[in-house]
Amino acid sequence: MITTDGQTPTDLAAELGEDIHVWRLAYDHHDGRAPLLAMLGAYLGVPASQVQVEASEHGRPALAGTQRDAFSFNWSHSHDQALIAITRGVLPGIDLERLRPHPKAVPIARRYFSPDETAALEALPADQRDRAFLELWTAKEAVLKALGRGLAFGLHRLSIAGPSDLPVLHRLDGYEAAQWQLHRLILDDAHVGTLAWRGTPRRIRQWTLAGTD
């Protein structure tokens, strides 16, 4: 694996520290977890076949066995692309969605989002709602994935505020929202992505693997 600027994950693993590394790569659903395991193996310095991964009670993947404390990670894929987040000391959550029409965005928001989020979405011109809806969705998913919880936790139990490029966790039932960080990922015109973690601000370093459009 090599980035578009000639670096490799193996080279960058030594620079991880408390940064959050975010990788964007081409993805084919037939590959399953193979791209993820290859990336984790590059950071661990072992073949993908030797990466030990287990799932939590709610399905969040994590390193297992003797590799358990090496680092934490999360990943997401949508259609032809995937995102992988790797760091130490916090549990990252990341979510990716391909931009597409959502004619039922407002009805879905009324059912599953908080009233303030729904009102903000309804106030937008119709041609801006698809992206705004997915920005909210990925932010919520990223937080839930960082919590290690799934959608069953309830999308209405957290609320995202702030401008499109600087989202803020306004409310999270049972948790102190001010302890959370949200970061909108700069991808391309066809994808929306968000990174979340509970803790202090961190430097985010982002790469695209060669061959990713």
Automatic annotation (TrEMBL):
UniProt keyword Cytoplasm, yes or no: no
Name of the featured protein: 4'-phosphopantetheinyl transferase
Domain 4'-phosphopantetheinyl transferase, chain residue ranges per copy: 93-190
GO molecular function: transferase activity
Known EC number: 2.7.8.-
Record carries keyword Calcium: no
InterPro entries with a match to the protein in the record: 4-PPantetheinyl_Trfase_dom, 4-PPantetheinyl_Trfase_dom_sf, P-Pant_transferase_sf
Keywords noted in UniProt: Transferase
PANTHER family xrefs: L-AMINOADIPATE-SEMIALDEHYDE DEHYDROGENASE-PHOSPHOPANTETHEINYL TRANSFERASE (PTHR12215:SF10), PHOSPHOPANTETHEINE TRANSFERASE (PTHR12215)
Homology family: Belongs to the P-Pant transferase superfamily. Gsp/Sfp/HetI/AcpT family.
